[in-house]
Protein 1
Amino acid sequence: MPFTALGLHPSIIQALSDQGYKQPYPIQSEVIPAILDKKDVLGIAQTGSGKTVGFVLPILMNLQRSSPTKSRHINVLVLVPTRELAVQVNEVFQVFGQVLPNRVKTMAVYGGASINPQMMGLHGVNILVATPGRLLELVESNAVHLSEIQTLVLDEADKMLNMGFTDEMNRIFELLPKKRQNLLFSATLSLEVDIVNRVLLRDPLIIKIEPENDNIDLISQLAYFVTDERKGPLLRYLIKHNNLQQVLVFTSSVYSADNVTDKLRKNGIDAMAIHSKKSQGARMDALGRFKFGELRVLVATDLISRGIDIKFLPYVINYELPRSPKEFIHRIGRTGRAESPGEAISFIAPADEHHFKVIQKKMGKWVTMIDSAGMDLKGY
C-alpha cells in the first residue's frame, strides 16, 4: 500500500518523497489510518520500525481539522523518557508540519535545560513533546494546561516505566480530559505496560511488529579477539586504515566514553562523547554534528543511545560489550536500518568470550571472529 492510499495531504506525500521515503513501513500502514479515524492504538515495535512517522503524520492531519485552543492549552501531548528522544520526535513534527496549509506549532520540553525559555515558548503551542518531570514543573508553574488534550502519545512506554516515571505519569493522567485519543508505543509488552494499556486505552487497535532480530540480516558483523590494553590502538587502526566515517562507538561507562574520546582526538580522529554527565547543549551539539556527517566518531553509553535515531548509519563498534544480549541487539540495530546495510564490529577481551557466546546464541547468529594478536598496531 503506497502513502498515497493512506489519506494523507498531498504536501505530506511530497515531503515524504523529499525525505527519501518510498513506501510505508508495516507499522505505518496500520497506524496511520487508525489514528486518522481517532482510534486508540497499542503498538509494540522496536526503535527503527518507523513508528514516529507513523503517529506524527496522522496527528498533524487531524489537527488540520481541529479548532484552535486557548493559549497554553495544548492539543497533543507526547510523553517520552529522554531529552534526546524529545528533540528527535519534535524535529519530525516540524519537518512535516511546516508543509501543511494550517501551520502547527510544536515544541520539546525536558529537564537539564533552563525552564524559563521553555515557559515563554509555550504560548500558542499545539503539540508538546515532553519528559514527565519537566512537564509537571511547567504545569505547576501554570505555563501549560492539559485540560483540552485531544491526543495523548506515550512513546517508549517501557523505558519510561523502567526509568521510574510511573508516579509522574499517573499524576499527568489525572490532569487529562477523560475523552481523548490514546496512543501507546513500546518495544515490549511487559506487565507494567499491559497495566497502563488496560487503564488508558479503549478498544485499541493492537499492532505488533517483530523485533530487531529480523533486521540484523542487513548487518555485517565481525568480532576481534583483543586484550584490553590493545583495544584503543585497534579502534584507531580500524578507523584510519579503513577510512571509516560516521562511526558510533559504544562503551559501558561514562569514564570509558571520555577516555576513548580523548585518545581518538589525540590521534587526529574527530570524536565527541555523549553521556549523562555532559550538559544538554554539549549532547545536542555532538548528536547534531554526528547526524549530519560533520563528526567522524560519536562515543556513547547505552542510556544515551536511546535518542540516537539516524536513518543511514554505516558503522557501530562495541568497544565494550553490554550486559545483556537484548542490549547488544539494540546497539547494533542502530545500523542496518531503513533497508540499508550496515557494519557492526565487536571487541572481545578474554573475559568476554563466554558472555559473547551467550549473546550470539540469543541473537541466533554466529559472528566471524578475528584474532588481533598478529595485527601490527604500532603507531596507532
Protein 2
Amino acid sequence: MQIFYNQNLAQFTTYKIGGTAKTIFVAQTKSDLVSAHSLYGGYPLGNGSKLLISDAGFDGNIIVNRAGAFVFDENGVWAESGVSLPMLVAQSVKRGFTGLEFACQIPATVGGAVVMNAGAFDKSIGDMVKYIEVLRDGEIVKLTAEQCGFRYRTSAIKNSGDLVLGARINLQVGEGKQKITMAISGRKNQPSGKSCGSVFKNGEQKSAMLIEKAGLKGLRVGGAIISPQHANFIINDGGATASDVYTLIRTAKARVYADFGVRLQEEVIYLGEFL
C-alpha cells in the first residue's frame, strides 16, 4: 500500500479537478483496502468518474481503491471493487460471456458502479449482481442484490458507511462482440474530453433536453463549458476549477426549474466544501 501526504486529488478523477487531501492511501489489494479502512478510515475513491472535488480539497483521508483481482467460473465472475468496469466487460467477452456489454464505456470501478448502480441503455449493474461483500464495522458482510436496494443511479449502500470489497456478477454464455460494437455506436453522441459523464439524472423528461431548451448549451464559466454536443455533460475545457463546474450546475438547475418547474437531480457527487 502506498501512502501520500497533502497530494493533489485531481489526478484521481476523470474531471482532473480537485484540491489536496491530508492523506491518500492507495490500496492495491483487498487486504490493503480492509487495512486502510479499518486502521485509518477515509473516503473511498475508485475511478473518480462521478466526483467533483472542491478546489479547497478534502480535510481528511482518501482511500484510492486499486484492488483488481477477478475470477471467472461457468456462471459469471467475482470481481474486487477496484476492478475497471470496461476491462471486466472486455475480459467477460473474451471468455465467451455476455450480459455486461452495456457497461463497456462506463469509466468506473466495480465498487463505484455498484454504489451508484451505474448503467446505460436502460440496463444497470444492479441487474447483474448476485451479491456483494462489504466491510461493515470491521467485519466482512455479504449482501444480496435485494439488500443492496438498487434504484436508478443509486443504492442503499450509498451513504451507509459500508465499504464495497467486491461483487459477484451473473453472466450468460454467449457472443458479446457485436453488442459492444452496438453499445459504442449508441454512445457516439457523447462528447469527449474531461468530464464526469452525465451530470444529472434523467427523470420522465431527459435532462439534456431541458437544459438545451433553456438555451444553456455552450454556456461557459472559466474553463468549464456545458457541452455544445450533449447538454448533460459539463466539460473541463482546460484549466477548469471545481467552482467553475459547480456554477454551471447551479445555473442549469435554476434555469430549468424557472423555465419548466423541473428540479434536476445530480448524479455527480461533491467532495469537500462548496459555497
